[in-house]
Design goal:
About 30% of the residues lie in helices and about 15% in strands. The protein is of the alpha/beta class. The strands form 4 sheets. The protein has an 8-stranded mixed β-sheet with strand order 10-9-8-5-4-3-1-11. α3 runs parallel beside α4 and α11 packs parallel to α14. It is globular and about 65 Å long. It binds FE(8)-S(7) cluster and iron/sulfur cluster. FE(8)-S(7) cluster binds next to β1, β3, β4 and β5.
Length: about 500
């Protein structure tokens, strides 16, 4: 039986949950145990209510819901060696990207403008461009204005933690349910290699003394949030040779203090960004090094593996970037919130989501009974909705899943340069895609040409469009069963 073909296209702007095989053939290039994936039956219902529409706190939700950031908090109270103040806070966004600074009133106009056009919008985040808890006046004024106009939007904040203990009471009062703290160390001697200075209590501290204060404030802020039932996500930047091994200890500490998720992100280090690490040749980890560390962390604090290190003015589903459609000069001077598109979208998603959950459960059963101890790494081209609905040549990223007797887990994503641009395929980009997909066994996409399929094969990676428009887990379950000797599932649940 085929999965129902619900069209969300009219509601989702430029993001298309395209489920039509007919469309697929007509265009395009011719040539875990992850805690954030947990479902209602696997967790406390109050917690599920908090995360079910949050694309960062729930892997499952990130297939359907979008966040936006407003850059209202430029001031920062520490220096990180991976940050250049010319750009935005690299704790929660890619370095090298500068966003449009907004006043709280401008931010409100932008949020309403986006909410009227992007029905997937569920979360407003403030992630800088400096530190949201230090630049508190702007952060608070923005949250208050937005909450008054759009009562059901979730408020989310990201901070380095130094000023956090002073803000916890007000965060709770404003119903901010989701807080991210960047914690890169619990040993100040390691901290001194990451933070050259902090500014605290009207003076500047350096070295181990600075890192000790930062560490104590971070732990205290985390404990205070846990005590109030506010969900916390810990972001850690993986810096090879500096804190990579140490993040195992960090994971233990934050788990003990009630962190909901731990998100280990790769250091992005480029001399062009002018950061200390970029200029001194400190490298970031490779995709497989990051995955190996995340695998070692399984069993500790639950991991987030679907972070996209998005822009500080990001708008849209994780992995897509619609920020440039909503710059101030493109917004009307006066905007009035219209809830209708978001409400209709939610009703459609509720139905689609239930159907996908049933399909996933059937696929998991198949994988677990396949009788093989082996694992399969699968890269999926998707535009959202939990389906294989993107052409190979149009993909800007692949979502990576691992199937094993333990189940089917989302284990990360790999960003790539789009291979096919306007019908023209770039050989150089294809080389890059093949090298980025290192370690992957099979690529699933809605459409792929003979040429890239053959080139992938030469690189030891199989690719197929046979499961185009199916649910991701359904296809992986069928593949795994076919691969390891059990009866394959039907192509759709
Ligand atoms: Fe923004 Fe961060 Fe809130 Fe999400 S992002 S403040 S928790 S709404 Fe999400 Fe972007 Fe990763 Fe951040 S994908 S960088 S984890
Ligand atoms: Fe830069 Fe953010 Fe670190 Fe401040 S907290 S120095 S803005 S990366």
């Amino acid at each position: 039986m085929s999965a129902p073909m619900i069209s969300l296209q009219g509601l989702s702007g430029t993001t298309v949950f395209d489920q039509s095989p007919a469309r697929a053939k007509s265009g395009g290039c011719a040539s875990s145990s992850c805690g954030s994936s947990a479902k209602p039956h696997e967790m406390d219902s109050a917690v599920w209510e908090k995360i079910k529409d949050h694309p960062c706190f729930s892997e499952e939700a990130h297939h359907y819901f979008a966040r936006m950031h407003v850059a209202v908090a430029p001031a920062c109270n520490i220096q990180c060696n991976y940050c250049n103040r010319k750009y935005d806070c690299a704790n929660e966004s890619r370095p090298g990207v500068v966003s449009e600074r907004l006043t709280p009133d401008q931010a409100l106009r932008k949020v309403i403008g986006v909410a009227n056009e992007v029905p997937q919008l569920s979360v407003l985040g403030i992630a800088g461009p400096g530190d949201a808890c230090y630049d508190w006046k702007n952060t608070k004024a923005t949250f208050q204005r937005v909450a008054k106009e759009i009562a059901d939007i979730k408020l989310c904040i990201s901070t380095n933690g130094l000023a956090l203990p002073d803000r916890v009471a007000e965060l709770a009062e404003m119903n901010v349910d989701h807080v991210t703290i960047t914690i890169n160390m619990v040993d100040p001697r390691i901290g001194a290699k990451i933070y050259p200075w902090i500014f605290y209590d009207n003076r500047r501290y350096t070295g181990v003394e600075a890192a000790t204060i930062l560490h104590e404030r971070q732990m205290s802020g985390l404990e205070m949030l846990t005590a109030r039932g506010i969900l916390t996500k810990i972001n850690s930047v993986m810096i090879p040779g500096v804190n990579d091994e140490h993040l195992i200890e960090v994971n233990k500490w934050v788990k003990e203090r009630g962190a909901f998720l731990h998100n280990v992100m790769p250091l992005i280090s480029d001399p062009a960004h002018g950061t200390h690490y970029g200029l001194s040749g400190q490298r970031g980890p490779k995709a497989m090094e990051l995955k190996a560390l995340q695998d070692r962390l399984e069993g500790g604090a639950k991991l987030m593996r679907h972070c996209r290190q998005c822009r500080a003015d990001a708008v849209g589903l994780l992995g897509e970037d619609r920020g440039q459609e909503f710059t101030l000069d493109r917004l009307p001077d006066k905007v009035t919130y219209d809830a209708s598109k978001r409400e209709t979208y939610r009703a459609v998603v509720a139905r689609e989501r239930g159907d996908r959950l049933a399909a996933k459960s059937a696929a998991l059963g198949m994988v677990k009974t396949a009788g093989s101890g082996k694992s399969l790494l699968v890269a999926v081209a998707t535009k959202g909705g939990g389906r294989i609905n993107e052409h190979f040549g149009h993909a800007k990223e692949f979502q990576v899943y691992e199937a094993s007797p333990k189940g089917i887990s989302f284990v990360g994503h790999r960003k790539v340069e789009q291979y096919c641009l306007g019908g023209r395929a770039e050989d150089k980009s294809l080389d890059g895609v093949i090298s980025t997909l290192e370690g992957v066994d099979i690529v699933l996409c809605a459409r792929i040409g003979n040429c890239p399929e053959d080139r992938l094969k030469e690189g030891g990676i199989r690719a197929t469009e046979a499961y185009g428009y199916d649910y991701i887990e359904t296809a992986i379950g069928a593949l795994y069963a076919a691969e390891f000797g059990s009866e394959p599932l039907a192509a759709t649940a």
